[in-house]
């Protein structure tokens, strides 16, 4: 018996060494993933969308393709729509799958349906503007959706004559709620809101009411900080509202319409929605926080029975799925932490199984069903990953210099040998109200498998201010820009050095948004700790950042807790440009030219300061058509190539001058 086990393990090891191969950067940015799921009433059929990135150097520039597939039980998924028109907002009602798409002959995105048995897609409703999202009443009679009013045709005519002036923040058009009776011979949409922005719409079961999430303006800041849920009649009259403060997440009615579960915030200064509240509509909308002092953040919710709510929680670097009853607030486990990182859940009333989108260190997001406290995998979007060498990945804990216990995810070099020191790439998440989970971390900005096979260790720290550890922990970075939060990152690097894993002289740092801020801070104020830096859509000047961002209200409420004019010098000293003269860390700066969250001027400022001082290699790369993050595969691949070239040059090759700015794209054209 022991001999047989030993031979089996040996054969598996030999097979791995013979057939396993390295991943490429092009493969990293073109992995497919499951984007959404809808479940039939009997829980036996799931319709889901799969994101299929374009092929670099072959396809024309554009957004990813989205396909529609159907899986029955544990059978092989069946493709339903795989053309280039795209599929969005999928739901199942009766015998049909509904979805939004802009197909041949459409001027705008319309609503379609296709039989669960397959066939051709049929148009259900087309509006005079694009349908952003929709919902159907339980009996299928009514359609409610979100859309803007029809554009003024004279605007285009005036633009041709040169009248193109833009009035900043005053020309944002409301997205309204609309209602359609589909039983009419010629269905017409009735606009039921006109004085506020509508972000979501849902029918209340058993009642002629709609639940809307609204905000007083169409500005991003009000979406984050000033939205509310309200109940309106089919005519649009407000009948009740649900009092909440701060950021709001998803809301779901119980099957009988009595309860409304809402993912909300502890208070106005809570950095992220992650508390779970339940309103009782039969008792004057009284509200209870049903998971007080939850040590993580609630990510998603769905009802399985009138009195049983399923919730997905992220705790530390793991996730859990549990059920809670309304009468006694008793909870029980449906999926223990450690099996996968669940992204969202889909429950069906009166059905035992719960569908989940989830990922692991070995694969991107796939579709699963949760049964008997275990996961049944239903899709394999990237079967070729079975041939890729997978590096060791684990959660580690370390103490910050003030004693605070922190977590991070460590990825070892593919050919790790104990006692050998390796170059390090530390990848800092944005937000900072975000966190890393111990799952699939490969992105264009963090090509984990590729970097590990090149001999790098990678570290993903959940520094103070991260989510996943409750409200109190997520507030620890407030009113302390670039303070203890970024010291935590250095302390993590030093911990890896003390472990004997990392070469202290070959440590690199990178990240986007707030992670870009950390990367800029590491290259300037903390330059002695980092040998290379890659900053993406990052902050360099906290004074001008406040005046150029689209989230100034959120910055004040959940990050800075003050205004620049209250302490000008403090804001200046917490800005990387203030420390530019002492920078000795080579820094590559990259930014989307259309970014409204962190204006490209933030990158331009740091570039100009460093270039003028002339003490260190610096390069600025801008991406036309991209915003706060690269969406298109060509821009993603270009970013990955530049990131790795910069790290290789300064951490592996001990370069002193910047590497060539040219990449071998032309050689790859077919």
Task: Describe this entry's structure for a reader.
- A hairpin with a 5-residue loop joins β19 and β20.
- The protein has an eight-stranded mixed sheet with strand order 29-30-32-31-33-34-35-36, sandwiched between helices.
- It is 19% helix and 33% strand.
- The chain is of the alpha+beta class.
- The model is unreliable at 1-17 (pLDDT under 50).
- The protein is globular and about 75 Å long.
| Strand ordering within the main sheet | 29-30-32-31-33-34-35-36
Number of helices: 13
Gap between N and C termini:
55 Å
Tell me the overall shape: globular
Radius of gyration, whole Å = 26 Å
Overall pLDDT confidence? 95
**From the helix content, strand content and strand pairing, which structural class follows?**
alpha+beta
- Major pleated sheet: 8 strands, mixed
Helix content: 10-25%
List unreliable stretches of 5+ residues: 1-17
Percentage of residues in strands: 25-35%
The count of DSSP E runs of length 2 or more, i.e. the number of strands, is 36
Question: What's the arrangement of secondary structure elements?
Answer:
Layout: H1 2-19, H2 25-29, E1 33-39, E2 45-52, E3 65-72, E4 78-81, E5 88-93, E6 96-101, E7 110-115, E8 122-125, E9 133-136, E10 142-147, H3 153-160, E11 176-181, E12 189-191, E13 197-203, E14 209-215, H4 220-225, E15 228-233, E16 238-242, E17 251-253, E18 259-264, E19 275-280, E20 286-289, E21 297-305, E22 308-315, E23 318-325, E24 331-335, E25 341-347, E26 354-360, E27 363-371, E28 374-377, E29 393-399, E30 405-411, E31 422-428, H5 448-453, E32 457-462, H6 470-474, H7 484-498, E33 502-512, H8 514-523, E34 532-536, H9 542-548, H10 552-560, H11 568-573, E35 587-592, H12 601-613, E36 618-623, H13 633-652
């Amino acid at each position: 018996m022991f001999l047989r086990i030993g031979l089996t393990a040996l054969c598996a090891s030999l097979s791995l060494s013979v057939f396993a191969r390295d991943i490429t950067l092009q493969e990293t940015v073109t992995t497919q993933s499951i984007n959404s799921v809808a479940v039939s009433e009997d829980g036996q059929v799931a319709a889901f969308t799969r994101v299929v990135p374009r092929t670099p150097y072959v396809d024309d520039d554009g957004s990813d393709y989205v396909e529609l597939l159907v899986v029955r039980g544990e059978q092989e998924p069946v493709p339903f729509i795989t053309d280039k028109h795209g599929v969005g907002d999928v739901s199942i009602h009766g015998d049909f799958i509904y979805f939004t798409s802009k197909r041949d002959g459409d001027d705008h995105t319309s609503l379609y349906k296709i039989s669960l048995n397959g066939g051709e897609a049929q148009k259900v409703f087309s509006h005079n503007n694009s349908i952003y999202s929709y919902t159907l009443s339980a009996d299928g009679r009514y359609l409610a959706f979100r859309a803007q009013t029809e554009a003024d045709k004279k605007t285009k005519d005036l633009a041709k004559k040169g009248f193109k002036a833009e009035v900043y923040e005053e020309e944002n058009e409301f997205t309204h709620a609309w209602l359609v009776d589909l039983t009419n011979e010629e269905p017409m949409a009735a606009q039921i809101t006109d004085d506020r922005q509508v972000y979501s719409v849902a029918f209340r079961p058993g009642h002629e009411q709609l639940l809307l999430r609204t905000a007083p303006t169409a500005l991003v800041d009000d979406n984050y900080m000033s939205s509310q849920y309200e109940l309106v009649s089919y005519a649009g009259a407000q009948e009740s509202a649900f009092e909440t403060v701060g950021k709001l997440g998803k809301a779901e009615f119980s099957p009988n319409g009595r309860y409304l579960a809402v993912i909300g915030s502890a208070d106005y200064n809570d950095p992220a929605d992650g508390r779970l509240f339940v309103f009782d509509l039969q008792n004057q909308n009284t509200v209870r926080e049903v998971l007080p002092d939850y040590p993580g953040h609630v990510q998603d919710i769905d009802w399985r029975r009138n009195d049983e709510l399923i919730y997905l929680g992220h705790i530390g670097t793991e996730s859990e799925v549990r059920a809670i009853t309304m009468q006694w607030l008793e909870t029980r486990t449906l999926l223990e932490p450690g099996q996968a990182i669940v992204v969202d859940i889909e429950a069906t009333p009166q059905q035992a199984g719960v569908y989940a989108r989830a990922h692991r260190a070995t694969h991107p997001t796939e579709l699963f069903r949760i049964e008997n406290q275990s996961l049944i995998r239903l899709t394999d979007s990237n079967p070729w990953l079975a041939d890729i060498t997978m590096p060791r990945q684990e959660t580690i804990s370390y103490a910050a210099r003030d004693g605070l216990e922190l977590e991070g995810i460590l990825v070892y070099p593919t050919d790790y040998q104990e006692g050998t020191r390796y170059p390090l790439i530390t990848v800092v998440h944005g937000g900072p109200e975000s966190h890393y989970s111990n799952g699939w971390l490969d992105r264009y900005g963090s090509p984990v498998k590729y970097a590990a096979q090149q001999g790098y260790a990678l570290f993903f720290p959940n520094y103070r201010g991260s989510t996943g550890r409750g409200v109190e922990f997520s507030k620890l970075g407030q009113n302390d820009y670039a303070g203890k939060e970024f010291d935590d990152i250095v302390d993590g690097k030093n911990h890896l050095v003390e472990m004997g894993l990392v070469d202290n002289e070959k440590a690199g740092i990178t990240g986007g948004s707030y992670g870009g801020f950390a990367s800029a801070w590491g290259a300037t104020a903390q330059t002695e700790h980092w040998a290379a830096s890659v900053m993406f859509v990052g902050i360099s000047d906290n004074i001008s950042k406040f005046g150029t961002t689209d989230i100034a209200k959120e910055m004040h409420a959940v990050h800075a807790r003050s205004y620049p004019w209250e302490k000008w010098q403090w804001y200046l000293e917490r800005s990387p440009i203030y420390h530019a003269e002492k920078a000795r860390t080579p820094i590559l700066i990259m930014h989307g030219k259309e970014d409204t969250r962190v204006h490209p001027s933030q990158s331009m400022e740091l570039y100009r300061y460093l270039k003028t001082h002339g003490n260190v290699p610096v390069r600025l790369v801008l991406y036309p058509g991209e915003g706060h993050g690269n969406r298109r595969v060509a821009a993603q691949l270009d970013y990955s190539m530049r990131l790795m070239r910069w790290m290789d040059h300064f951490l592996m090759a001990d370069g002193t001058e910047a590497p060539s700015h040219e990449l071998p794209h032309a050689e790859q054209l077919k």
